[in-house]
Amino acid sequence: MVTSFLFFFVYLLKFVTTESSLVNLTILQTAVAKGAVCLDGSPPAYHLDRGSGTGVNNWVISVEGGGWCQNVAQCLLRKNSKYGSSAKMENQVFFSGMLSNEQKFNPEFYNWNRVFVRYCDGGSFTGDVEAIDPGTGLHYRGARIFKAIMEELLAQGMNKSEYAILSGCSAGGLTTILHCDNFRILLPNSVKVKCFSDAGYFVNIEDISGKPFIQQFFNDVVTLHGSAKNLPPSCTSKLEPGLCFFPQNAAQQIQTPLFIINSAYDGWQVRNILVPRGTDPKGAWNNCGANIKTCTPDQLKVLQGFRLNFLKALEGLGPSSTRGYYINSCFAHCQTQNQASWFGPNSPRLFNKTIAEAVGDWVLERNQFRQIDCPYPCDKTCG
Question: Which residues form a coiled coil (predicted)?
Fold first, then answer.
């Protein structure tokens, strides 16, 4: 039994390492003097794998996801984890999917400078509160972290790049949308700057009990973190700041080219926006929320309504030719950092394109990819 387990472990390790590489953590100590610190006051951090060959002057940045904290109690919990302290972060992480260094797994970006920005502020890098609560020691400085890390990467050579791409998953995908124009401003005009957001297009809908749960949640996040001044002014001049945390209200005014990757049945949004904690006391949605194939006909009807609401919110992108999108019907959340969904023989496909191929075509301007999948369960490529 032990021998069999050891063989399996070695096989699994070999399989994982062929699709990914370990990249060291870089702690940005100089950021502390700028007040650009994690929730616990520790310096921010990132992982950088240098480019080579034809990609040596190109950069692609992926911002880590991991939800948000809407109150002091939640932020205190994060403070003692890798989502609130660089002291708790892993010294190395695997780079796979859009960060892989192998062409067969990552055809466009494999030899670019690839960066994974760690998420330790709990406010999608929008917060900036000068005061530090002496009782909790919490720092809300996400916007300063974003600027400090980008300035560091500029000094590392990104200022001389041909392409500079900002991306992120989940809360990092929302960061990408909200900071897309800020990222553009930091770079010289000669650089081709674009943004693509993975599973970051969170929609403002009522939950199954008819309450605006996510709207209140985002409003609390924005208030706690002092985010209003770091949200797109074109939105905050018209709407309450909490509403400008929703991409459907902020994206149309973004000037920088923007690409959206999302499932119309985003699993995280189903479990946390459509059916948040407390709305399903009997657990009727537990199985459905974990696996769409187990949903009842009535639950599927609700999910089809969610899809229609998502597509309506997507109209907030506006008609600009600089917009692109890949909206599939897989019950998924975050698809760019997962090798199986990013690029491979069994990856999901939309109009016969993997996510990696569609993003590559859009970034390199081979195709203005704008496609929406047919409703569940018609797509048989989701696996």
Answer: none
Rounded to 5 degrees, φ, ψ at 272 are -120, -15
Catalytic pick among 170, 197, 263, 347 = 170
What length is written for the chain? 383
Out of 128, 266, 280, 373, pick the active-site residue.
Answer: 266
Angle between helix axes 171-186 and 142-155 (nearest 10 degrees) is 50
In angstroms, the Cα distances linking 53 to 23, 105, 274, 280 are: 19, 17, 46, 54
User: Exactly one of 333, 341, 347, 373 is catalytic; which is it?
Assistant: 333
Rg over CA atoms, the chain? 20
| Alpha helices, DSSP H, located in the chain | 2-19, 72-79, 142-155, 171-186, 213-225, 233-236, 247-250, 267-269, 286-290, 297-314, 339-342, 355-363
CB atoms within 10 A of CB 211: 13
Q: Residue 371 corresponds to which tokens in the numbers above?
A: 């496609």
Q: What is the mean pLDDT of the chain?
A: 94
136 beta partners? none
Q: Give the percent of the chain with pLDDT over 70.
A: 95
pLDDT band at 383 (very low <50, low <70, confident <90, very high): confident
Please say whether the beta carbons of 317 and 197 come within 8 A.
Answer: no
Helix (H, G, I), strand (E, B) or coil at 69: coil
Would you place residue 133 in the very low, low, confident or very high pLDDT band (cuts 50, 70, 90)? confident
Q: Which pTM does this prediction carry?
A: 0.94
Q: Assess whether 266 carries a catalytic annotation.
A: yes
